[in-house]
Structure formats: C-alpha cells, structure tokens
Amino acid sequence: MKDTIYPRSLSERIKRKIGLYKHQNLDADKLRSNLFDEQFSENYSLLNLVRGSESSISTRESLRPILATVGIGPCIAMAGYDTSQGIGFLSHNGVGDYVDILHDLVLEELNNHSKSRLEMEIYIVGGMMGSGQLARKLRENAKKFNPKRINEDLALKISDLTYIGKSFAIDVRDGKVYSLDGKGKLQYLPPAEPLISLKNEFRKYIL
Asked: Is the preceding peptide bond at 74 cis, omega within 30 degrees of 0?
C-alpha cells in the first residue's frame, strides 16, 4: 500500500501545474515538524547522521536515536521503523548506487538487533527530475522489510537548478518524522554509530 503522507492543498497543486511553485524547499518540508525549532534547539548530540551511499540503524536504547540526512535530491532517502521493537534505519541513496546490495546489508544488520520478524513503516523521501528509476528500485527494496505501509514524499517533477533537496529525520524512540534545518552545520558532523556503507563494501573488492 502506498500513501502520500504530506498531501498538498489544491492551490499548491494548481501552482505546481502552471509553474508558479516558487519556494520548493520550504514548501516541500512545511508539513513536517521542524526538528530543532520544536524540541532540540540545535542539539546535535542525538543525531546519527547518514551520508551519501550509506545507511545506519538506531534503536530506542541508542545514544543517538535520531537518524538524519540532508540534501536528498536527486538522491532519495529511505527509512523504516518497527514500532513494537523500537528499531529503525535510514539510507541515503544516489542515482547509480547499488541499492539492492546496500539494503541487503541493512536488513542483515536489523535482523541482528531484532527479536522477532520486522514489520516496518517505510518512508521514501527526496529526489528530483531524473530520479524516477531510483524511486522504483527503492519501492522494490522496501518490500524486503515487511512494510505495513510505504509513505512517499517525492519531488520527481522538480528540475529547478536552485533546488537543494529535502531533509529528513526519524526519531526511533517514538517513530516521529521531521524536516531538518541544518544551517550549514549538519554536513560536518561525523556519524556516531557504525555505518553500513556501499563505499566500504566495494573497497574490499578494490584493495
């Protein structure tokens, strides 16, 4: 089952259709809660930051239970959350990435930390024009995680060169999803927990 979790108003859809959609970044995120304004006041210590071609998992007990990524467009993020077990993952996927391999590794890691069969709420967020094939691959990979529902917030018709992509965070303590305002800081923070990385995986074969 595929849901759109951030429905747009009729006026916004009309503006998009006739090309008057001016503030794409702000409008794309405005129906998600803002992470820092609402509760964290730019306290980055809780973040498990995921960079391009990588993924990570967190649990309710993690020191950094908030999985986050920025700049998703043309990249697409996929996240999953199991409510009963309090475990989740987030991946940052680029056009041309081997997303099958990455998500097989993610699933293996999740199974190592879970006590029963996973049942996940899935989120697929980001992209822009040219990301359609990547979105299709991620929908296929989402099926590996026994999804209760697949929620999408994609921007596959946007081609504006000034569009810098969406942002996304999921708090695995309660499963809430947020937009992020990194203000130029998030990109420089190292992840706090071990990453599942395509770069590391392929380095084994190169060396």
From this structure: yes
Please state, in angstroms and as integers, the Cα–Cα distance from residue 51 to each residue in 35, 107, 129, following that order: 18, 18, 21
List strand residue ranges (DSSP E) for the chain, in order.
Answer: 2-4, 33-34, 47-49, 54-59, 66-72, 76-82, 87-93, 120-126, 147-154, 166-171, 176-179, 196-197
pLDDT tens for residues 109-137? 999 999 899 999 999 988 888 999 999 99
**What is the pTM (predicted TM-score) of this model?**
0.75
How far is residue 206's CA from residue 162's CA, in Å, rounded to a whole number?
A: 36
Residue 16 CB-half CA count within 13 A: 14
Structural domains in the chain plus CATH codes:
2-182+192-206 (3.30.1330.200)
pLDDT in tens, 15-69: 666 666 554 444 444 445 555 545 555 566 788 889 899 999 999 999 889 898 8
Sheet holding 2-4, edge to edge: 2-4, 147-154, 120-126, 76-82, 87-93, 54-59, 196-197
- State how far the Cα of 170 lies from the Cα of 175, in Å rounded to an integer: 6
Q: What is the pLDDT of residue 40?
A: 53
